[in-house]
Specification:
TIM Barrel; 8 strands; globular; about 280 residues; eight-stranded mixed β-sheet; alpha/beta
């Protein structure tokens, strides 16, 4: 079954290096046969809300079809860093405060509910993007990522859990490939009990879990073995009753992904694409 939806797309308004205009997205989605989709620029802390305001203006000005939606991607952060930012103690906290926080800091998201309503945000993709103040040691990072994933799975604002167990930054070989820690040499290093607890939390709270094409399934910096193990993990989640969604995680100036290859991989994994998550078209 062909992929017809994409719920994780970044525009040029995102705080990272994304470059896509909304008008080019609309044209590109039509060319790729993507009929239902949404933009999801980054909100790490309230500092990024000016970017989301710009994205909202550009989205509205493009006169998108009713099947196009306005979302955001948020990160798991800590109350400690949000408080420091609110007090004005950090200059340009684009990505929040990534070091120096207390161990076991209270988890948080940087999007206030009143801002979500004001900006007309229809859905929220939320991901774990970094360790929160733990040693760069595989077991400590695994436990911390699991803690963050459970927090997001239980948060009332979150709609979709983005790319669970995505990793970048350290332990990358000189040729650009990730082959080792924290779990990239063997995904089964993550305890099965963590996967069960996450699956239960997602189902209990009615969340979807993302099949991220660009960052996970098709990521050329991950080994083929890891990507296949990860795909089997997603297929297992679906077999347990977890709803899956598709996200290209596009950051490019031209919209697209290798959807044909992704379809083949997902079919081999036995993922049923007829029951993927989607938003209904907006009503005017």
């Amino acid at each position: 079954m062909p992929i017809r939806s994409d719920w994780h797309i970044h525009t040029r308004n995102s705080c990272d290096e994304a470059a896509l205009t909304v008008r080019d997205l609309l044209a590109g989605a039509a060319a790729c046969g993507i009929s239902d989709f949404g933009i999801t620029d980054h909100v790490h802390t309230p500092y990024n809300l000016l970017d989301i305001e710009a994205a909202r203006r550009e989205f509205d000005a493009a006169c998108p079809p009713a099947s196009a939606h306005f979302g955001v991607e948020i990160s798991c952060v800590s109350e400690w860093e949000l408080e420091k930012i609110a007090r004005g103690e950090v200059e340009r906290p684009v990505y929040g405060i990534r070091e120096g926080g207390p161990a076991g800091a209270e988890l948080a998201v940087g999007l206030p509910e009143e801002e979500r309503r004001r900006l007309g945000i229809e859905y929220v993709v939320a991901g774990v993007h970094w360790p929160l103040y733990v040693p760069y040691e595989a077991d400590a990072i695994t436990r911390d990522y699991h803690r963050q994933l459970l927090f997001l799975a239980c948060h009332p604002m979150v709609t979709i859990i983005a790319h669970p167990w995505w990793w970048m930054g350290r332990w990358r070989d000189t040729d650009g490939i990730y082959r080792s820690d924290p779990w990239l040499d063997d995904f089964t290093r993550i305890p099965a009990a963590m996967h069960r607890e996450f699956s239960e939390a997602v189902r209990a709270n009615g969340k979807a879990v993302e099949i991220n094409l660009g960052a996970m399934i098709l990521n050329p910096t991950y080994t083929e073995r890891f990507r296949w193990q990860y795909g089997e993990y997603l297929a297992a989640l679906q077999s347990e009753g977890v709803t899956l969604s598709i996200g290209s995680d596009c950051h490019d100036a031209i919209y697209g992904s290798d959807f044909d290859r992704a379809e083949q991989i997902l079919e081999r994994l036995g993922i049923d694409m007829s029951i993927l998550w989607r938003l209904p078209s907006r009503e005017y």
